[in-house]
């Protein structure tokens, strides 16, 4: 699974485990990942792996999303 | 029956069984105590948090369902604060001889919530009969997720009160598992359970119950109720879970090889 696909899966699961869409969008934006109004990923600024690492750092603000994301990363065989 | 719950009203999900859920939208970690009323007595299962905004909702809902002085028993299915911390707050409103029941291995920890009621240790297959002869059976599920973890079976309604087992991450106040619940459940259990062996044991005990006396509903302390027609699906999803993975992630990060 490539890094963009990992980020997309994290977003897809995030939308199922939290109703805090504004906070979620803010965390993605802060990590250099832009979402559109329908919470679909549009642009990843710069290196995708750097964006994923930033996302994992910033997701501490939304604990259950980070907990879910950790499992996506494990399934993808990534070590951050 | 409504499809969602609110902050004011208990929901009677089966005869004499009330869902006292508190929505926790910011954290997606809803807190769901249950109340069972039978023959003039009441039991509270996993009474919940001491945090004011949680506790006040639970008390408001209990009062709408029963006179709190009828509460003779408080059952906690493991020692975590999100289900035990309300005990000392609830206790003064209950029957003067209210008793607290906890798994044996959790008892030594539960005492530290600093309540006055007698604390009874429970072991596998112990039972509690109350009210008009209603029997609750306690089924130990060790290491799932603590050595002193258990689930409670109400033989009258065939409900399994599963505590963290079959819980899920959701900020919505849905009573019953919906299309997103498989992901919500696996995201929660996949991280909070450490041992596949412990999970398999708990699932097989549940399958024994389902094949024997029967299970009509699984009522977790977080997330949503799983009705009978979906139980097999969720048991299968739980069998397929990869648990304890946080150890593998950190071992890989720190260059540790585990056997």
List keywords for this structure.
heterodimer, A: 80 residues, mainly alpha, 9% strand, B: 259 residues, alpha/beta, seven-stranded mixed beta sheet, six-stranded mixed beta sheet
Description:
- The complex is a heterodimer of chains A (80) and B (259).
- Chain A is mostly helical.
- Chain A is built from 4 helices and 2 strands; from the N terminus they run ααββαα.
- In chain A, helix 1 (3-17) packs antiparallel against helix 4 (63-75).
- The two termini of chain A are 15 Å apart.
- Chain B has 8 helices and 13 strands.
- In chain B, a hairpin with a 3-residue loop joins strand 8 (127-130) and strand 9 (134-140).
- In chain B, the strands form 2 sheets. In chain B, strands 1-2-3-4-5-6-7 form a 7-stranded mixed β-sheet. A 6-stranded mixed β-sheet of chain B has the order 8-9-10-11-12-13.
- The N and C termini of chain B lie far apart (50 Å).
- Chain B has 259 residues and is of the alpha/beta class.
- Chains A and B meet through helix 1 and helix 4 of A and helix 5 and helix 8 of B.
Task: Please tally the β strands of chain A and state the result.
Answer: 2
Mean pLDDT of chain B: 96
Q: What is the rounded distance between the termini of chain A? A: 15 Å
- Report the structural category of chain B: alpha/beta
Query: What's the quaternary structure here?
Result: heterodimer
Q: Characterize the biggest β-sheet of chain B.
A: 7 strands, mixed
- Arithmetic mean pLDDT of chain A: 96
Helix content of chain B: 25-40%
Helix-strand makeup class of chain A: mainly alpha
Shape of chain A: globular
Total number of helices of chain A: 4
Shape of chain B: globular
Major β-sheet annotation of chain A: 2 strands, antiparallel
Hey, roughly how much beta strand do the residues of chain B contain? 15-25%
The helical percent of chain A reads 55-70%
What count of helical segments of chain B does DSSP give? 8
Strand line-up across the major sheet of chain A: 1-2
Could you state the order of secondary-structure elements of chain A as H and E?
A: HHEEHH
| Helix and strand element order of chain B | EEEEHEHHEHEEEEEHHEEHH
Largest interface: A-B, 17 and 23 residues
Q: Using only CA atoms, what is the Rg of chain A?
A: 11 Å
């Amino acid at each position: 699974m490539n890094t963009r696909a990992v980020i997309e899966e994290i977003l897809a699961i995030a939308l199922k485990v939290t109703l805090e869409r504004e906070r979620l969008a803010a965390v993605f934006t802060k990590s250099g990942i832009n979402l559109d109004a329908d919470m679909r990923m549009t642009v990843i600024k710069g290196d995708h792996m750097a964006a994923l690492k930033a996302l994992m750092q910033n997701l501490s603000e939304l604990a259950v999303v980070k907990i879910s994301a950790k499992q996506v990363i494990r399934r993808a065989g990534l070590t951050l | 029956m409504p499809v969602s719950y609110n902050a004011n009203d208990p929901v009677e999900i089966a005869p004499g069984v009330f869902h006292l859920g508190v929505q926790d939208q910011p954290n997606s970690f809803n807190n769901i105590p249950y109340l069972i009323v039978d023959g003039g007595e009441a039991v509270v299962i996993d009474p919940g948090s001491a945090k004011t905004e949680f506790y006040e909702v639970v008390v408001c809902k209990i009062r709408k369902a029963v006179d709190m002085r009828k509460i003779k028993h408080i059952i906690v299915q493991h020692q975590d604060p999100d289900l035990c911390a309300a005990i000392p707050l609830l206790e003064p409103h209950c029957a003067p001889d209210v008793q607290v029941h906890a798994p044996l291995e959790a008892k030594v920890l539960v005492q530290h919530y600093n309540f006055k009621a007698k604390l009874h240790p429970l072991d596998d297959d112990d039972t509690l009969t109350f009210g008009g002869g209603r029997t609750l059976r306690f089924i130990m599920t060790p290491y799932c997720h603590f050595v002193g973890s258990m689930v409670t079976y109400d033989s009258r309604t065939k409900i399994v009160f599963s505590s963290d087992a079959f819980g899920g991450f959701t900020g919505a106040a849905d009573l019953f598992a919906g299309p997103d619940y498989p992901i919500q459940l696996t995201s929660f259990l996949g991280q909070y359970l450490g041992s596949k062996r412990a999970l398999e044991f708990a699932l097989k005990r549940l399958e024994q119950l389902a094949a024997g006396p029967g299970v009509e509903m699984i009522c977790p302390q977080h997330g949503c109720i799983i009705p009978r027609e979906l139980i097999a699906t969720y048991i299968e999803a739980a069998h397929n879970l990869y648990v304890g993975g946080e150890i593998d992630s950190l071992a890989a990060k720190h260059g540790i090889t585990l056997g």
